[in-house]
């Protein structure tokens, strides 16, 4: 009898859990659906009350206008190149720095790590001017490397990988590798990195998404339309006096589709990497 009651209670809990998850999923997907609705209509329809909830039939027309107004395909390729480079840089360089802070002993290690952590308290906007001056001195203004190089690593990524490596990889394993004649680089690349690869993959994915959605720095440093990223191309769809919501949302939807496809493809691996870090951390 008690077993049956327990099963009934468990069933009720599961039902409410599924309902909560379904409601959360709808709330998360609704902005994307609303973006598509506006991308298939016009500004007048988008501002109607009550709002439209059924897509219109102008999506392909507006998408064609997006491609005619700005070099949008080239902008998507630029965003893909920048985001991929930054994602790979986050996965490898942050893991390398985290390994150094966690397992290597050198003078000033703790002080230097404290400086890295403190940089997370500095607003990003404060670094724009000195960063632009550096890019200007290097002759990188209006180039994609001005977006890639500053974003190859981050203080948060270094902190995250340092904490993950510290609790995941034992000192005895590293000492055994050194006794076998392995260098510090060999220990990292052949032993440490394969172990923390799931966490590094998740960090690289976060870096990819952040670089894809970045607007402020590309808007400042890029001048030529053929070097625009997707977010700057969307801004170029708007003129100085008014905003065509249908055109802007059509461009936004086209820029969002690659991210949705990415999460569909690697979503399960991303969740596995997050859970791996949670259980081991």
Order of helices and strands: HHHHHHHHHHHHH
Reported for the largest beta sheet, the result is: none
Could you please say which CATH topology of the domain at 70-236 applies here? Answer: MetI-like fold
CATH class of the domain at 70-236: Mainly Alpha
CATH architecture of the domain at 70-236, please? Orthogonal Bundle
In total, how many beta strands?
Answer: 0
Radius of gyration: 24 Å
Percentage of β-strand residues: under 5%
Number of helices: 13
Name the CATH superfamily assignment of the domain at 70-236.
Answer: MetI-like
What is the end-to-end distance? Answer: 41 Å
Q: Helix- and strand-based class?
A: mainly alpha
What is the molecular shape? globular
Unreliable sequence segments: none
Mean pLDDT: 86
Structural features:
single chain, 281 residues, mainly alpha, MetI-like fold
Explain what you see:
This protein has 281 residues and is mostly helical. It has a domain of 167 residues: MetI-like (MetI-like fold). It is 75% helix and 0% strand. It contains 13 helices and no strands. α4 runs antiparallel to α10. The model has no long low-confidence stretch (mean pLDDT 86).
Question: Nutshell version of this structure?
Answer:
By secondary structure, the chain is an all-alpha fold. Helix content is 75%, strand content 0%.
Question: How is this fold's topology laid out?
Answer:
Blueprint: H1 2-39, H2 43-46, H3 59-69, H4 72-103, H5 109-118, H6 128-138, H7 145-148, H8 155-168, H9 171-179, H10 184-213, H11 216-221, H12 230-236, H13 245-280
Helix pairs in contact: 1-13, 3-13, 4-8, 4-10, 4-12, 8-10, 10-13, 12-13
Protein name: Cellobiose transport system permease protein
Subcellular location: Cell membrane
Membrane topology: Multi-pass membrane protein
């Amino acid at each position: 009898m008690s077993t049956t009651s327990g099963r009934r209670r468990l069933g009720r809990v599961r039902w409410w859990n599924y309902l909560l998850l379904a409601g959360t999923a709808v709330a998360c997907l609704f902005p994307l659906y609303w973006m598509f609705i506006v991308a298939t209509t016009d500004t007048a329809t988008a501002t109607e009350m009550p709002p439209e909830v059924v897509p219109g039939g102008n999506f392909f027309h507006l998408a064609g206008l997006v491609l005619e107004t700005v070099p949008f395909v080239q902008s998507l390729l630029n965003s893909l190149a920048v985001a991929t480079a930054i994602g790979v840089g986050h996965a490898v360089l942050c893991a390398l720095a985290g390994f150094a802070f966690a397992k290597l002993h050198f003078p000033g290690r703790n002080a230097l790590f404290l400086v890295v952590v403190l940089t997370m308290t500095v607003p990003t906007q404060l670094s724009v001017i000195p960063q632009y001056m550096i890019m200007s001195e290097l002759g990188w203004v209006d180039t994609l490397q001005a977006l890639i190089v500053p974003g190859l690593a981050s203080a948060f990524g270094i902190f995250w990988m340092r904490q993950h490596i510290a609790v995941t990889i034992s000192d005895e394993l590293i000492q055994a590798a050194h006794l076998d004649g392995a260098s510090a680089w060999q220990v990292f690349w052949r032993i440490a990195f394969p172990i923390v690869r799931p966490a590094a993959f998740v960090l690289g994915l976060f870096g990819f998404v952040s670089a894809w959605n970045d607007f402020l720095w590309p808007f400042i440093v890029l001048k030529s339309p053929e070097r625009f990223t997707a977010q700057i191309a969307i801004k170029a769809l708007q003129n100085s006096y008014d905003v065509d919501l249908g055109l802007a949302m059509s461009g936004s939807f086209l820029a969002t589709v690659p991210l949705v496809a990415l999460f569909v493809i690697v979503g399960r691996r991303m969740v596995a990497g997050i859970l791996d870090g949670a259980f081991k951390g």
